[in-house]
Amino acid sequence: MNFQGEYINLIDPKGRASIPSRFRETLNSVYGDDRLVVTKNIDGGLTAYPVSRWPQLVENVKGQPAGRNKTAMIRLLVSPAQECTFDKQGRIQIPLALRSHASLTKEIVVVGHFDKIEIFNQSHYDQVTLTSESFLQEHPQEMADMGF
Fold first, then answer.
1. Whole-angstrom distance, CA of residue 121 vs CA of residue 8
2. How confident is the model at residue 14 (pLDDT cuts 50, 70, 90)?
3. CA-based angle 121:126:132, to the nearest 5?
4. Quick one: pLDDT band at residue 97, thresholds 50, 70, 90?
5. CA distances from 60 to 54, 97, 148 (A)
6. Percentage with pLDDT > 70 across the chain
7. H-type helices in 63-113, by residue range?
8. What are the phi and psi torsion angles at 14 (to 5°)?
9. Cα 99 from chain centroid?
């Protein structure tokens, strides 16, 4: 089972964001985790990984040859990452720097993305989705090749 679905939620002024119970169940049953590592993503949102997956991702980056790609991945993805735990209401506390990067102020969208979770400002997610729709309309064979 993977993380799947889109959920519109709220983030409170203290930066606590509710993660859907279905995602928390998957996190526990599939990954044996009760924590997430949250970092920036290149689409202007955040990506949350099960804590058990994070060391391998870091090792993958460390194993890359020195250069601009490796430095960029470290600066954008590895260095800002923060481990987040759940409170009794199923919320995680998202650090201010990460909230600022994703412009998380009120309405958010929590999206399942196979083995990770994405978190976006709702209006920005609408723009990201429109960009994806345009891409697929311009490249319909991509969808056909995957059986859609």
1. 10
2. very high
3. 120
4. very high
5. 10, 24, 31
6. 99
7. 68-73, 96-101
8. -85, 0
9. 12
SS3 147: coil
Domains along the chain?
A: 6-122 (3.40.1550.20)
Using alpha carbons only, give the angle 28, 29, 32 rounded to the nearest 5 degrees: 55
Q: How far, rounded to the nearest angstrom, does the alpha carbon of residue 143 sit from its chain's CA centroid?
A: 23
Task: Give the pLDDT confidence of 55-93 residue by residue, as tens digits.
Answer: 999 999 999 999 999 999 999 999 999 999 999 999 999
Question: How many of the other CB atoms lie within 10 Å of CB of 82?
Answer: 16
Q: Residue 145, class by beta-carbon neighbours within 10 Å (0-12 exposed, 13-18 middle, 19+ buried)? A: exposed
Q: What is the DSSP letter of 65?
A: P
